[in-house]
Design a protein that fits this description.
The protein is α/β, with parallel strands linked by helices. 65% of the residues lie in helices and 6% in strands.
């Protein structure tokens, strides 16, 4: 059976197997046109003209025949598609399911039903099939017309559900919200939702709906809600007095030149050159207001506009602005995503997880770029120009900055503009990195914003005051405010004119204007540190719900807070800071604790989305024990979206709280748990050669041993081995492996036991021990971990094991076995479709082929390895590819590549196998440079006990000696002592040439 999905996506699939038959936009659009006119024959000439308007009639008909041939080949000539020589027609049959047709059938049944319950049931069934707009991303005239009609019918069904008594208030509320999403500028939907919320006893929700309505109308149309909507609110609040007037919002004043520059940047981006415009300046200079005006312009032109904000609080969530963008209805309606990208988006948006499911842990750090690609494609999938607003970019987290850079690099020709605001003088940890990268790439336009001059200040003052100002008042206003728009607006709203004190005093006066309840709620909202919902404010406050609602309404009318996506936040960060300063320290402590408790109650089924907020609130509320628990959870959530820098920050916060406690066994156990959680993000973000990772693991080991925790000690040793080995500390790595081997007891997990044998084998091989010993441990490791998905050291045993085993086989003279092991590892990595494992297999296979002197095989392995490293950002193995690829190519270019790879490894602190890498560089170098490089290789091998390749280094160095025999004999003897058959044969072969019998 065919499954044709045209609403919210464009795909035709086999309904039983789920196999996608086609996603071709042309093929799916052709089927969609016939489906929209189902049961009515469509002349071929008409269709050809619609789909190929720029072709001649004859060519258009030929194109249609080809498209039909391809479509019938893919779909198997379904009976639903009726084809004659003159026309085409779609007929409903049992062999096909089409969401548009299912929507229409259910809609007609709903309209025809006489029983209210049946009508609502059919209407809900219809809405369930309406998963998004028709053919998202297409803008042909016939598509726009059909899309508008379906949209109208969906609104009609929402209204039917809302007005039909069915005993299911939840369905009516959902339908009302759906209607608002479809028609955000129609007040009817807001009034309906307000009435339903009031009937359900949700007075707070109804008031919030009104605030949202007023905010949307003001932003998009510059008007206030109509009388019926205001009357609905008046009844809701049951005020005896006339409705208080909301403070007027002045239009954009004095920024025509800056807005023109923004408009120019927007037109350039919309034409297909993606970029970032960064509006920067002091706090209160009007950055957000200017970008908001641009957003309104873009929205009026039919662009997809989404807004996100950064917060300067420890409880922030990594990639939160990106999540805000993706949750925007305009983005969701426009996105038609392939399932592979939808799965990546699902990592970030908690709403797509089942409650309590926790973060996903099935992804390695290498999948970060694929995750970013999924997010980027979701934001740009609609085909329309996209404007993404990023407010307060000075507090942008590192992961969001990295995503912005990646997105613009991946989609340089997308019609995409990111409009960001950045407050000068307050750079966050990552605020300077991504702008610098984008500036270097030519993708960043910076727009400095200055305070107004005297004329601009006067114009703004008159717009806010609603009256002309005298010359003396103009001069006083400019002298007092310095031309900062925020200062001007807030001073006039505070009725402090001309302002006698600084901005802080003006803001304090503004916050003293509301009544006592509103002031209390302002302090509570300030303690939250970010936007918060009415539910949270009600839960955390001593006041009853009605009083909280009235308080928020007063703050909203005075423009102290604004509605934002169903929550409330201060209209400016400086107002939040001023409100928080007015709360006494003991009162702050209490507010933070109540906010934490409120968050836990409201998110009891799934606290992951607010784990960082909970941690911050409990830490500031005097509950470090609970804060540590939530910091660890928040770090796990961050790591699940590859936000390793954020996970590290959160765990450092937890570590500081734990270490501040008095010494005890419980404290040590908690510290060990935090350190164990910290090791993974440190490795992913900084690499195995990180000094911080090494210190973390050594401290974990000391704590585990002092607590008598054998399993934790074993885990620490396994991870410590990886750090020491990559750093080139070969003896210390082997010591860690031997200690781990001594901890193996009956009952040790197969994964841990196998990992121990693996690290013993790798260390022994690198130290120059008998390869037969290493081979035995490799085989024991493979036997114990057969079927395991990963080792505790982070790689797959069934791939990494055979790949490294190949080197032991080759040293023992088992050439065929070495090649077979490498091929086995590569084949398995391909079969399981695991790019990181494939990179490991190819990297080790390239070394195997290099040892065999097979340049062609090395080149083939390196070419694929390089592509994988570029695609997924595998830095460590990228350097391997550079050195080995340089060796296989030879010449000046090969030497330069090999030298670059070695330099990168050294810069990263990765000195493992350095004698081997230097020997390859020497083979490409001129004689004098080769001698010096080989001497350096010998010194490195002795200094770091990395001795497995030293016989070959000695053999190569002998070629530059006046008498090569002594050094060749030393090479042969060393190879014999190490049990390296292959390297002994090479040295002996050279001896046979230079000193024949």
């Amino acid at each position: 059976m065919l499954r044709v999905s045209l609403l919210g996506e464009q795909v035709i699939a086999d309904d039983e197997s789920g196999a996608v038959l086609t996603r071709s936009p042309r093929s799916v659009a052709l089927v969609a046109h016939l489906v929209v006119h189902a049961g009515r024959a469509q002349p071929r000439r008409l269709i050809a003209g619609l789909f190929w308007p720029d072709s001649t009639d004859a060519q258009a008909l030929t194109n249609l025949r080809r498209e039909l041939h391809q479509l019938r080949r893919v779909l198997g000539d379904p009976r639903s598609l009726a084809v004659t020589g003159h026309d085409l027609c779609w007929r409903d049959t049992r062999e096909s399911r089409v969401d548009v047709r299912e929507f229409d059938v259910a809609r007609r049944a709903a309209l025809a039903a006489e029983d209210p319950g049946e009508a609502v049931a059919h209407a809900r069934a219809a809405l369930a099939t309406y998963r998004g707009e028709l053919l998202p991303g297409l803008a042909d005239d016939w598509v726009l017309a059909a899309r508008a009609e379906l949209d109208r019918q969906c609104v009609e069904l929402c209204d039917l559900i809302c007005r039909t008594p069915s005993g299911d208030p939840a369905a009516a509320l959902a339908a009302a919200r759906r209607r608002i999403a479809l028609r955000p500028l129609e007040e009817t939907g807001y009034r309906t939702l307000m009435g339903l919320q009031a009937e359900a006893g949700d007075r707070a929700g109804a008031v919030s709906t009104y605030h949202r309505c007023a905010s949307v109308l003001e932003r998009e149309l510059g008007v206030v809600p109509a009388e019926p909507t205001r009357t609905a609110l008046h009844r809701l609040l049951a005020r005896p007095d006339p409705e208080p007037r909301r403070a007027a919002a002045p239009g954009l004043v004095g920024r025509a030149a800056e807005l023109a520059r923004l408009g120019e940047g927007w037109r350039t981006a919309a034409a297909g050159r993606a970029g970032v415009v960064l509006v920067r300046g002091d706090a209160g200079v009007g950055k957000t207001r200017l970008v908001t005006e641009l957003a309104g312009m873009a929205r009026a032109e039919g662009a997809v506009v989404a807004a996100g904000r950064c917060f300067g609080t420890p409880g922030r969530l990594a990639l939160a602005p990106v999540a805000d963008w993706l949750r925007t209805p305009a983005v969701q309606r426009a996105a038609a995503l392939d399932p592979v990208w939808r799965a990546e988006v699902d990592r970030l948006l908690p709403a797509t997880r089942q409650a309590g499911a926790g973060p996903r842990r099935d992804a390695g750090a290498w999948q970060r770029l694929r995750f970013f690609e999924g997010l980027a494609r979701a934001l740009t999938a609609g085909g329309r120009p996209v404007l993404l607003v990023l407010d307060n970019a000075q507090w942008c987290d590192e992961e969001t900055g990295a995503f912005l850079t990646f997105c613009l690099g991946l989609l340089p020709d997308a019609p995409l503009l990111i409009a960001a605001t950045l407050r000068d003088g307050e750079p966050g940890p990552g605020a300077g990195v991504w702008p610098a990268q984008l500036r270097d790439d030519g993708r960043l336009t910076e727009l400095p914003l200055r305070p107004f001059d005297a004329v601009g200040t006067a114009r703004l003052g008159e717009a806010v005051a609603g009256r002309p100002l005298s010359a003396s008042d103009r001069d006083l206003l400019y002298a007092a405010t310095g031309g900062y728009p925020l200062y001007v607006v807030e001073a006039l709203r505070a009725h402090d004119f001309p302002p006698a004190e600084g901005l802080t005093a003006v803001l304090r006066t503004r916050l003293e204007q509301p009544g006592p309840a509103a002031r209390e709620i302002a302090g509570l909202a300030a303690a939250a540190g970010r936007d918060c919902t009415l539910d949270l404010l009600t839960e955390a406050s001593d006041l009853d719900a009605d009083t909280v609602v009235d308080a928020i309404d007063e703050l909203w009318r005075r423009r102290i807070v604004r509605e934002f996506g169903g929550a409330y936040d201060f209209t400016h960060d400086l107002l939040r800071e001023a409100a928080y300063q007015q709360v006494s320290p003991p009162r702050r402590w209490l507010l933070h604790r109540r906010l934490a408790q409120g968050l836990e109650l409201l998110h009891a089924e799934d606290t992951d989305a607010v784990a960082a907020q909970l941690a911050e609130q409990y830490a500031r509320g005097g509950r470090p024990d609970r804060a540590v628990t939530h910091y660890r959870r928040a770090a796990a959530v961050a790591a699940s979206t590859f936000a390793h820098a954020e996970a590290i920050r959160l765990l450092r916060e937890a570590l500081a709280l734990v270490r501040a406690r008095p010494a005890s066994g419980n404290r040590d156990r908690d510290e060990l748990a935090v350190l164990e959680a910290l090791a993974g993000p440190l490795n992913a973000h900084q690499g195995y050669s990180s000094p911080e990772l090494q210190h973390t693991l050594e401290r974990s080991l000391a704590l585990a041993e002092s607590l008598g925790d054998r399993e934790a000690a074993l885990t620490a040793l396994l991870e410590l081995w990886s750090s020491r080995f990559v750093q080139g500390r070969t003896v210390q790595a082997y010591q860690a492996a031997e200690r781990a081997l001594g901890l193996l007891v009956p009952g040790t997990s197969a994964e841990q036991g196998g990992s121990v044998h693996f690290i013993v084998a790798g260390s022994a091989l690198s130290l120059g021990h008998d390869p037969a010993e290493a081979l035995r441990h490799f085989e024991l490791g493979a036997e114990r971990t057969r079927g395991a998905s990963s080792w505790p050291i982070g790689t797959r045993p069934d791939v990494h094991g055979p790949a490294w085993t190949a080197h032991a086989h080759w040293l023992l003279g088992h050439d065929d076995a070495a090649v077979a092991c490498g091929a086995e590892a590569i084949a398995l990595a391909r079969r399981i479709d695991h790019p990181y494992s494939l990179a490991i297999a190819l990297a080790y296979a390239a070394i195997t082929h290099q040892m065999r002197r097979d340049r062609r095989a090395v080149g083939a392995a390196v070419a694929e390895l390089q592509a994988l490293c570029d695609r997924y950002g595998f830095a460590y193995y990228r350097e391997w590819a550079l050195v080995l690829g340089g060796w296989s190519r030879g010449g000046a270019a090969g030497l330069a590549a090999a030298q670059e790879g070695v330099a990168n490894l050294k810069a990263e602190g990765s000195f493992a196998r350095m004698p081997y890498w230097l020997a390859l560089v020497a083979e490409l170098s001129a004689p004098a440079a080769a001698r010096a490089t080989l001497d350096a290789a010998l010194a490195a091998g002795e200094a770091r006990d990395d001795r497995w390749w030293l016989p070959e280094v000695l053999r190569l160095r002998a070629a530059y000696d006046a008498d090569p025999v002594p050094r060749l004999r030393a090479a042969a003897e060393l190879a014999r002592a190490q049990g390296s058959v292959a390297l002994r044969r090479r040295a002996e072969a050279d001896l046979g040439v230079v000193s024949p019998p």
